[in-house]
Amino acid sequence: MSAGEGRETPIPAALNAVLLVCAMAACASSLWLASHAERFGVKVLAAGVFSFVNNTVFSLLHEATHGVLHPRRRVNDALGRVAAAFFPTSFTMQRAFHLNHHRHNRTHLEQFDYFRPGDNRFLKRAQWYAILSGIYWLFVPVGAVAFALVPGLLHRLRGTGTRYGEQTGADAYLGRLESVPGAAIRAEVVLAACIQAGLAVALELSLVGWCLCYAAFAINWSALQYADHAWSPLHVRDGAWDLRVAAPVRWVFLNYHYHRAHHRHPHVPWLYLGRYVDPDVTRPSFLRIWLSMWRGPRPLPATPEER
Known about the structure:
Blueprint: H1 13-36, H2 40-65, H3 73-85, H4 91-104, E1 114-115, H5 121-133, H6 135-149, H7 151-157, H8 163-168, H9 170-176, H10 182-202, H11 207-227, H12 247-252, H13 259-264, H14 286-293, E2 298-299
Parallel strand pairs: 1-2
Helix pairs in contact: 1-2, 1-11, 2-3, 2-4, 2-11, 3-10, 4-9, 6-7, 6-10, 6-11
Protein backbone atom coordinates (compact mmCIF):
# COMPACT_ATOMS: atom_id res chain seq x y z
CA MET A 1 0.00 0.00 0.00
CA SER A 2 1.18 3.54 -0.69
CA ALA A 3 1.59 6.15 2.03
CA GLY A 4 -1.48 7.97 0.74
CA GLU A 5 -3.82 5.03 1.15
CA GLY A 6 -6.13 5.07 4.14
CA ARG A 7 -7.07 8.73 4.00
CA GLU A 8 -10.71 7.76 3.51
CA THR A 9 -10.69 5.45 6.53
CA PRO A 10 -13.54 6.62 8.80
CA ILE A 11 -12.57 8.27 12.07
CA PRO A 12 -14.19 6.47 15.05
CA ALA A 13 -15.19 9.80 16.60
CA ALA A 14 -17.80 8.52 19.06
CA LEU A 15 -15.54 5.69 20.24
CA ASN A 16 -12.64 8.10 20.65
CA ALA A 17 -14.74 10.47 22.74
CA VAL A 18 -15.95 7.65 24.99
CA LEU A 19 -12.43 6.28 25.38
CA LEU A 20 -11.09 9.73 26.24
CA VAL A 21 -13.71 10.30 28.94
CA CYS A 22 -13.23 6.81 30.39
CA ALA A 23 -9.43 7.05 30.32
CA MET A 24 -9.44 10.45 32.00
CA ALA A 25 -11.85 9.15 34.64
CA ALA A 26 -9.54 6.18 35.23
CA CYS A 27 -6.60 8.59 35.52
CA ALA A 28 -8.46 10.70 38.08
CA SER A 29 -9.43 7.57 40.06
CA SER A 30 -5.82 6.34 40.05
CA LEU A 31 -4.56 9.72 41.23
CA TRP A 32 -7.13 9.73 44.03
CA LEU A 33 -6.24 6.20 45.17
CA ALA A 34 -2.50 6.91 45.05
CA SER A 35 -3.12 9.97 47.23
CA HIS A 36 -5.52 8.47 49.76
CA ALA A 37 -4.63 4.79 50.12
CA GLU A 38 -3.08 3.96 53.48
CA ARG A 39 -0.86 1.14 52.22
CA PHE A 40 2.10 2.11 50.10
CA GLY A 41 1.66 -1.04 48.02
CA VAL A 42 -1.81 0.16 47.00
CA LYS A 43 -0.36 3.54 46.08
CA VAL A 44 2.20 1.84 43.84
CA LEU A 45 -0.52 -0.31 42.26
CA ALA A 46 -2.61 2.81 41.55
CA ALA A 47 0.44 4.47 39.99
CA GLY A 48 0.96 1.41 37.80
CA VAL A 49 -2.62 1.58 36.55
CA PHE A 50 -2.23 5.31 35.93
CA SER A 51 0.89 4.67 33.85
CA PHE A 52 -1.21 2.63 31.42
CA VAL A 53 -4.49 4.55 31.28
CA ASN A 54 -2.67 7.86 30.84
CA ASN A 55 -0.96 6.26 27.85
CA THR A 56 -4.46 5.74 26.44
CA VAL A 57 -4.99 9.48 26.85
CA PHE A 58 -1.64 10.13 25.19
CA SER A 59 -2.53 7.82 22.29
CA LEU A 60 -5.70 9.84 21.74
CA LEU A 61 -3.61 13.03 21.92
CA HIS A 62 -1.42 11.46 19.24
CA GLU A 63 -4.53 10.90 17.10
CA ALA A 64 -5.45 14.55 17.53
CA THR A 65 -2.02 15.74 16.36
CA HIS A 66 -2.73 13.95 13.07
CA GLY A 67 -6.29 15.29 12.89
CA VAL A 68 -7.89 11.85 13.19
CA LEU A 69 -9.39 12.06 16.67
CA HIS A 70 -12.54 13.71 15.34
CA PRO A 71 -13.54 14.65 11.76
CA ARG A 72 -14.36 18.25 12.73
CA ARG A 73 -11.13 20.21 13.13
CA ARG A 74 -12.36 22.39 15.98
CA VAL A 75 -13.62 19.41 17.96
CA ASN A 76 -10.46 17.44 17.18
CA ASP A 77 -8.25 20.25 18.49
CA ALA A 78 -10.45 20.94 21.53
CA LEU A 79 -10.30 17.28 22.57
CA GLY A 80 -6.57 17.29 21.86
CA ARG A 81 -6.08 20.23 24.20
CA VAL A 82 -7.91 18.44 27.00
CA ALA A 83 -5.93 15.24 26.41
CA ALA A 84 -2.68 17.24 26.39
CA ALA A 85 -3.54 18.62 29.84
CA PHE A 86 -3.22 15.11 31.28
CA PHE A 87 0.33 14.74 29.97
CA PRO A 88 0.61 17.69 30.84
CA THR A 89 1.73 19.79 27.87
CA SER A 90 0.56 22.13 25.12
CA PHE A 91 -1.37 20.54 22.26
CA THR A 92 0.03 23.02 19.71
CA MET A 93 3.59 22.34 20.86
CA GLN A 94 3.05 18.57 20.83
CA ARG A 95 1.64 18.70 17.30
CA ALA A 96 4.55 20.79 16.03
CA PHE A 97 7.10 18.43 17.55
CA HIS A 98 5.35 15.24 16.46
CA LEU A 99 4.83 16.27 12.84
CA ASN A 100 8.47 17.36 12.80
CA HIS A 101 9.35 13.85 13.94
CA HIS A 102 7.55 12.41 10.93
CA ARG A 103 9.59 14.67 8.64
CA HIS A 104 12.95 13.78 10.18
CA ASN A 105 12.43 10.21 11.36
CA ARG A 106 15.67 8.16 11.15
CA THR A 107 17.57 10.97 9.39
CA HIS A 108 20.80 12.22 10.95
CA LEU A 109 18.64 14.37 13.26
CA GLU A 110 17.00 11.30 14.80
CA GLN A 111 19.58 8.58 15.17
CA PHE A 112 19.83 8.56 18.94
CA ASP A 113 20.60 4.82 18.88
CA TYR A 114 23.82 5.21 16.86
CA PHE A 115 27.12 6.95 17.40
CA ARG A 116 27.68 9.09 14.32
CA PRO A 117 31.12 10.42 13.37
CA GLY A 118 31.93 13.46 15.49
CA ASP A 119 29.24 12.75 18.11
CA ASN A 120 29.85 13.69 21.72
CA ARG A 121 29.51 10.22 23.22
CA PHE A 122 28.77 11.45 26.73
CA LEU A 123 25.92 13.63 25.44
CA LYS A 124 24.64 10.78 23.26
CA ARG A 125 24.52 8.38 26.20
CA ALA A 126 22.98 11.00 28.50
CA GLN A 127 20.18 11.63 26.01
CA TRP A 128 19.71 7.91 25.45
CA TYR A 129 19.39 6.94 29.10
CA ALA A 130 17.20 9.98 29.79
CA ILE A 131 14.75 8.43 27.31
CA LEU A 132 14.98 4.96 28.86
CA SER A 133 14.68 6.13 32.47
CA GLY A 134 11.68 8.42 31.95
CA ILE A 135 13.61 11.65 32.57
CA TYR A 136 12.81 12.52 28.95
CA TRP A 137 9.14 13.01 29.91
CA LEU A 138 10.07 15.77 32.34
CA PHE A 139 11.47 17.94 29.55
CA VAL A 140 8.04 18.11 27.87
CA PRO A 141 5.95 19.84 30.60
CA VAL A 142 8.94 21.86 31.82
CA GLY A 143 9.69 22.94 28.25
CA ALA A 144 6.07 23.95 27.66
CA VAL A 145 6.04 26.10 30.78
CA ALA A 146 9.44 27.59 29.92
CA PHE A 147 8.27 28.57 26.44
CA ALA A 148 5.06 30.06 27.83
CA LEU A 149 6.90 32.17 30.41
CA VAL A 150 10.10 32.99 28.54
CA PRO A 151 9.66 32.46 24.78
CA GLY A 152 13.18 33.63 24.00
CA LEU A 153 14.73 30.99 26.26
CA LEU A 154 14.05 28.08 23.93
CA HIS A 155 15.54 30.03 21.02
CA ARG A 156 18.78 30.28 22.99
CA LEU A 157 18.66 26.55 23.77
CA ARG A 158 18.44 25.58 20.08
CA GLY A 159 22.18 25.48 19.65
CA THR A 160 21.90 26.62 16.03
CA GLY A 161 25.06 25.88 14.10
CA THR A 162 26.54 23.76 16.90
CA ARG A 163 27.18 20.04 17.16
CA TYR A 164 24.92 19.99 20.23
CA GLY A 165 22.00 21.47 18.28
CA GLU A 166 22.36 18.94 15.47
CA GLN A 167 23.20 15.85 17.53
CA THR A 168 20.31 16.26 19.96
CA GLY A 169 17.82 17.52 17.38
CA ALA A 170 17.28 20.62 19.53
CA ASP A 171 17.82 23.02 16.65
CA ALA A 172 15.34 21.28 14.35
CA TYR A 173 12.66 20.80 17.01
CA LEU A 174 12.87 24.03 18.96
CA GLY A 175 13.14 25.89 15.67
CA ARG A 176 9.64 24.70 14.82
CA LEU A 177 8.24 26.79 17.66
CA GLU A 178 9.17 29.97 15.81
CA SER A 179 6.43 29.26 13.27
CA VAL A 180 3.65 28.29 15.70
CA PRO A 181 1.36 30.76 17.50
CA GLY A 182 2.91 31.49 20.87
CA ALA A 183 -0.40 32.77 22.23
CA ALA A 184 -2.00 29.37 21.59
CA ILE A 185 0.80 27.59 23.45
CA ARG A 186 0.52 29.95 26.39
CA ALA A 187 -3.27 29.51 26.55
CA GLU A 188 -2.89 25.72 26.44
CA VAL A 189 -0.29 25.75 29.19
CA VAL A 190 -2.72 27.77 31.34
CA LEU A 191 -5.48 25.28 30.49
CA ALA A 192 -3.28 22.33 31.47
CA ALA A 193 -2.32 24.07 34.72
CA CYS A 194 -5.98 24.76 35.52
CA ILE A 195 -7.01 21.16 34.84
CA GLN A 196 -4.14 19.80 36.94
CA ALA A 197 -4.95 22.25 39.74
CA GLY A 198 -8.63 21.38 39.48
CA LEU A 199 -7.85 17.69 39.86
CA ALA A 200 -5.58 18.40 42.82
CA VAL A 201 -8.23 20.45 44.64
CA ALA A 202 -11.30 18.38 43.75
CA LEU A 203 -9.65 15.05 44.58
CA GLU A 204 -7.51 16.40 47.43
CA LEU A 205 -4.43 14.92 45.82
CA SER A 206 -1.20 14.56 47.75
CA LEU A 207 2.15 15.49 46.24
CA VAL A 208 3.42 11.96 46.88
CA GLY A 209 0.44 10.38 45.11
CA TRP A 210 0.71 12.72 42.12
CA CYS A 211 4.47 12.20 41.81
CA LEU A 212 4.15 8.42 42.06
CA CYS A 213 1.58 8.35 39.28
CA TYR A 214 3.48 10.62 36.93
CA ALA A 215 6.83 8.93 37.64
CA ALA A 216 5.27 5.59 36.67
CA PHE A 217 3.71 7.15 33.58
CA ALA A 218 7.01 8.78 32.61
CA ILE A 219 8.82 5.44 32.71
CA ASN A 220 6.07 3.56 30.86
CA TRP A 221 5.61 6.26 28.22
CA SER A 222 9.33 6.81 27.66
CA ALA A 223 9.98 3.08 27.30
CA LEU A 224 7.96 2.95 24.09
CA GLN A 225 8.96 6.32 22.65
CA TYR A 226 12.16 5.01 21.11
CA ALA A 227 11.74 1.23 21.32
CA ASP A 228 9.48 1.55 18.28
CA HIS A 229 12.42 3.05 16.32
CA ALA A 230 15.63 1.67 17.83
CA TRP A 231 17.82 -0.22 15.32
CA SER A 232 15.16 0.14 12.60
CA PRO A 233 16.05 0.98 8.95
CA LEU A 234 17.38 4.50 8.33
CA HIS A 235 14.34 5.45 6.29
CA VAL A 236 11.86 8.26 6.95
CA ARG A 237 8.74 6.11 6.48
CA ASP A 238 10.04 2.57 7.02
CA GLY A 239 12.25 3.43 10.00
CA ALA A 240 9.98 2.02 12.71
CA TRP A 241 8.79 -1.33 14.03
CA ASP A 242 5.40 -2.96 14.29
CA LEU A 243 6.29 -4.33 17.69
CA ARG A 244 4.89 -7.55 19.13
CA VAL A 245 3.40 -7.09 22.58
CA ALA A 246 0.65 -8.72 24.66
CA ALA A 247 -2.72 -7.91 23.09
CA PRO A 248 -4.23 -6.27 26.22
CA VAL A 249 -1.26 -3.89 26.41
CA ARG A 250 -1.57 -3.05 22.73
CA TRP A 251 -5.29 -2.36 23.22
CA VAL A 252 -4.60 0.03 26.12
CA PHE A 253 -2.03 1.83 23.95
CA LEU A 254 -4.53 1.91 21.07
CA ASN A 255 -2.28 0.05 18.63
CA TYR A 256 0.59 2.50 19.18
CA HIS A 257 2.96 -0.48 18.87
CA TYR A 258 1.99 -0.72 15.18
CA HIS A 259 4.39 2.12 14.58
CA ARG A 260 5.75 1.22 11.16
CA ALA A 261 2.19 1.02 9.89
CA HIS A 262 1.55 4.43 11.42
CA HIS A 263 4.61 6.04 9.83
CA ARG A 264 3.68 4.62 6.44
CA HIS A 265 0.02 5.62 6.82
CA PRO A 266 -0.17 8.53 9.30
CA HIS A 267 -3.74 9.40 8.30
CA VAL A 268 -5.13 5.99 9.32
CA PRO A 269 -6.95 6.06 12.70
CA TRP A 270 -5.61 3.74 15.40
CA LEU A 271 -8.58 1.36 15.08
CA TYR A 272 -7.55 0.22 11.59
CA LEU A 273 -3.75 0.17 11.83
CA GLY A 274 -3.67 -3.62 12.08
CA ARG A 275 -4.81 -3.79 8.46
CA TYR A 276 -1.63 -1.99 7.40
CA VAL A 277 0.88 -4.19 9.23
CA ASP A 278 3.03 -5.91 6.62
CA PRO A 279 3.26 -9.64 7.51
CA ASP A 280 6.46 -9.97 5.43
CA VAL A 281 8.41 -7.44 7.51
CA THR A 282 10.22 -8.40 10.72
CA ARG A 283 8.22 -7.72 13.88
CA PRO A 284 10.49 -7.84 16.93
CA SER A 285 9.05 -8.01 20.42
CA PHE A 286 8.88 -4.82 22.43
CA LEU A 287 10.66 -6.53 25.33
CA ARG A 288 13.59 -7.66 23.18
CA ILE A 289 14.13 -4.19 21.72
CA TRP A 290 13.72 -2.49 25.09
CA LEU A 291 16.22 -4.80 26.82
CA SER A 292 18.74 -4.35 24.00
CA MET A 293 18.50 -0.57 24.41
CA TRP A 294 19.96 -0.75 27.92
CA ARG A 295 23.31 -1.71 26.37
CA GLY A 296 23.48 1.81 24.96
CA PRO A 297 23.91 3.34 21.52
CA ARG A 298 25.85 1.39 18.87
CA PRO A 299 28.34 2.45 16.20
CA LEU A 300 26.62 3.62 13.04
CA PRO A 301 26.47 0.66 10.62
CA ALA A 302 27.52 0.85 7.00
CA THR A 303 24.18 1.48 5.32
CA PRO A 304 22.81 3.00 2.12
CA GLU A 305 22.21 6.74 2.15
CA GLU A 306 19.28 7.82 4.34
CA ARG A 307 16.01 8.18 2.54
